[in-house]
Write a structure and sequence with these properties.
about 220 residues, alpha/beta, Rossmann fold, six-stranded parallel β-sheet
Length: about 220
């Protein structure tokens, strides 16, 4: 048996040549993709309809949705944590300091003196409070990108209760095509559509398998 590899086929040579050309930055450029499709089903001049649509779709995913003004936000957060019996809240760096001025739950900062919260420690935390980068109305999706007030992905995956604050209307977009240009692809993104859930072949839904069992979303509108 010869020790030489079998001769290359024409198709193989063609594929490898295209790969080498792509790695060198040469070769034919891909044809532009036409993007003349409808980018939103919600009128751009109707922020109220956009917010209503976001709330409906969040509720469809079994998220608990609340609305309040910025001035009432600390009181609402305190009420949410009180109703759940929350004693400890994981807090990402950059979270506005006034959000937790009323709650009696103890804040555990992820950038505290003890260093970042470990997975084992987060497993003992009752709740986590974050902001978000964007919220997408047509899909009921929250996007976190590890920016200020959002933190590492681990923070929102381990605790069983996640409260996410969305500033409306500036953080609410209608659709995925409108959201993508506003996001930095180099940042670690977490796209959340409702609480963590899965189902088996019998379609029995189980929540809390891959993340929080309960997701509460606060839509903040207005200042007072």
């Amino acid at each position: 048996m010869s020790g030489h590899p079998p001769p290359s086929t024409g198709s193989r040579d063609l594929v490898l040549a295209r790969i080498r050309a792509a790695l060198r930055g040469g070769g034919p450029q891909p044809a532009p993709v036409p993007r003349d499709y409808l980018r939103s089903h919600v009128p751009a001049d109707d922020p109220g309809a956009l917010l209503d649509l976001l709330e409906r779709h969040l509720a469809d995913y079994r998220a608990l949705v609340h609305r309040c003004t910025a001035g009432r936000l600390p009181l609402l957060l305190a009420a949410l944590f009180e109703a759940r019996g929350t004693r400890t809240v994981a807090v990402p760096p950059g979270l506005p300091s006034d959000w937790l001025t009323v709650t009696r739950a103890r804040a555990l900062p992820d950038d505290g003196p003890g260093g970042p919260l470990t997975a084992a420690r987060l497993d003992t935390v009752d709740s986590v409070l974050t902001g978000c980068a964007l919220a997408i109305a047509e899909t009921g999706t929250l996007v976190l990108d590890a920016g200020p007030g959002q933190g590492r992905r681990l923070l929102t995956l381990v605790p069983d209760h996640h409260v996410c604050v969305v500033r409306a209307p500036e953080q609410v977009v209608a659709s995925v095509p409108l959201a993508l240009p506003l996001l930095d692809p180099a940042r670690p993104q977490t796209w959340i559509s409702g609480p963590s859930a899965t189902s088996d072949i019998e379609l029995d839904r189980v929540e809390g398998v891959h993340g929080p069992r309960t997701l509460e979303v606060v839509l903040v509108t207005g200042g007072d």
